[in-house]
Amino acid sequence: MIDLLFSGNDGVFDGVLTCLLSVLKRTNTKDSFRVFIFTMDITRIKPAYKSISGRKIEFLEKVVKTYNPENRVIVKDVGKSYEREFAYCPNEGAYCSPYTLLRLLADEELPEVAGKLLYLDADIMFNRDISLLYDTDVSGFEYAAARDHYGKFLLRPDYINAGVLLFNMEKCRETGIFLKAREKLRAKKLIFADQDALFRSTTKKKLLPQKFNDQKFLHKNTVVRHFSKRLFYLPYPHTDNIKQWQVDKVRKVFGYRQFDDVFDEYLKLKKFFNEENYYNE
């Protein structure tokens, strides 16, 4: 069994759907997938911060089961744990959203996961078989991760990007890395919140080649393409945050055709979901 973890509010649906489709279409394995989604209602901060809806979870599970009937999508409302650990802490207004902090509850919220757990940001697509990443030996390490594209130059050569994290949950519980990270987040404001807290709490990590979290380019050997904010130099220096579910923009700006099969199915499924919602309202 392959255990995956996402986190987010109701708006994470398109990202999780496109990511899972890329995984399922690129992976040749008989193992089933157990997909966990951490969510919560925290509208006290922003009205849009609502839990992912049950209808969306049901739809995601229907999709993954068309590839393997043993696949599952499991939603976990971690709102109570969030309020206990992070409510009104200096990092609640994290650079992305408070949902980025949820991965740091994995030790408590996923007692059923004793081995590997692959955490993925929702703005990720797999260009090659997920087994190339998931089969990485993390014995003796808390996690495996690739360097952050900009952080490795601006901060430290070993500074990691937390959008793709292959956790060794047994080791993480042994060292208390999640507990230490949560304490750091409560103690003071960190520029990159959960990413900084995790990095500073690490006892031993395994650095992966950039192909396992490519935040800027898509090469032939790229396994994971992370659609994070990046710098463009033309027609003038600027940043943009193009996500994979912005299909037309991805095709026009990046010129990608490698994901056409995924995008075509995503657009078909999204249309069906919207129509199904319309007729059920």
Computed Rg: 18 Å
What is the domain tally?
1
Distance between the termini: 36 Å
CATH class call: Alpha Beta
What fold name stands as the CATH topology?
Spore Coat Polysaccharide Biosynthesis Protein SpsA, Chain A
Shape: globular
CATH superfamily: Spore Coat Polysaccharide Biosynthesis Protein SpsA, Chain A
Order of helices and strands: EHEHEHHEEHEHEHHHEEEEHH
Largest sheet: 7 strands, mixed
Q: Uncertain segments of ≥5 residues (pLDDT<50)?
A: none
Instruction: State mean pLDDT (0 to 100 scale).
Output: 92
Which CATH architecture would you pick? Alpha-Beta Complex
Number of helices: 11
Q: Report helical residue fraction.
A: 25-40%
Structure report:
By secondary structure, this protein is of the alpha/beta class. The protein has a single domain, classed as Spore Coat Polysaccharide Biosynthesis Protein SpsA, Chain A (Alpha-Beta Complex), CATH 3.90.550. The chain contains 11 helices and 11 strands. The chain starts with a strand and ends with a helix.
Task: Briefly summarize what is shown.
With 281 residues, the chain is α/β, with parallel strands linked by helices. The chain has helices at residues 13-26, 54-65, 79-86, 106-109, 131-134, 151-154, 169-175, 177-187, 193-201, 247-254, 260-280, and strands spanning 2-7, 33-39, 72-77, 116-120, 124-126, 143-146, 164-168, 205-208, 224-226, 230-232, 238-240.
